[in-house]
Design brief:
single chain; five-stranded mixed β-sheet; 7 strands
């Protein structure tokens, strides 16, 4: 009986991990969203580049720590073919603009007003990042943020840029 309860418990707590892990190796869902200036940004326009796709929100504390670090990676590797796209889950363009004034970023920032893109990528927590290869395949998924993860991000990106 105890083994059955433990097994059921483990299946319940690990189910989300297996569900999202199934995306690794799959073609990244395409999208087109607008940036804060109303300019359309699509995943297809970055075909042939390595893309770090990051889902975030201005009220998310780890996101506030992660975005400047991702922007630094973007500045370091964009000449080698890296694009970083921040997809805000907050639909208030005013809140996003205030955040951007406090934290100027050179990476692309777009807004997922209807949660269509976050649904397609099955985002369940923030921040969530996806590293997409030059051929449009999801190679890595990262949930949450800690500065200790930056060397791993950089290694994964550098390998795909080779």
């Amino acid at each position: 009986m105890n083994k059955l309860i433990i097994t059921a418990f483990l299946l319940v707590i690990t189910a989300p991990v297996y569900a999202s892990a199934g995306q690794i190796g799959a073609k990244a869902p395409s999208f087109e969203l607008s940036d804060l200036n109303g300019r359309a940004i699509s995943l297809e326009q970055f075909k042939g580049k390595v893309v770090f796709l990051d889902f975030w929100a201005p009220w998310c504390i780890p996101c506030k720590q992660e975005l400047p670090e991702l922007d630094n990676l973007y500045k370091k590797y964009r000449k080698d073919g890296l694009e970083v796209i921040g997809i805000s889950m907050d639909v208030s363009e005013k809140d996003i603009a205030v955040f951007m004034q406090k934290h100027p970023l050179s990476m692309h920032i777009i807004v997922d007003k209807k949660s269509e893109v976050s649904d397609a990528y099955r985002v369940s927590s923030l921040p969530t990042g996806f590293i997409i290869s030059r051929d449009g395949v999801i190679k890595r998924q990262h949930r949450g943020f800690d500065k200790e993860l930056l060397p791993m991000y950089e290694k994964e990106i550098a390998e795909l840029l080779k």
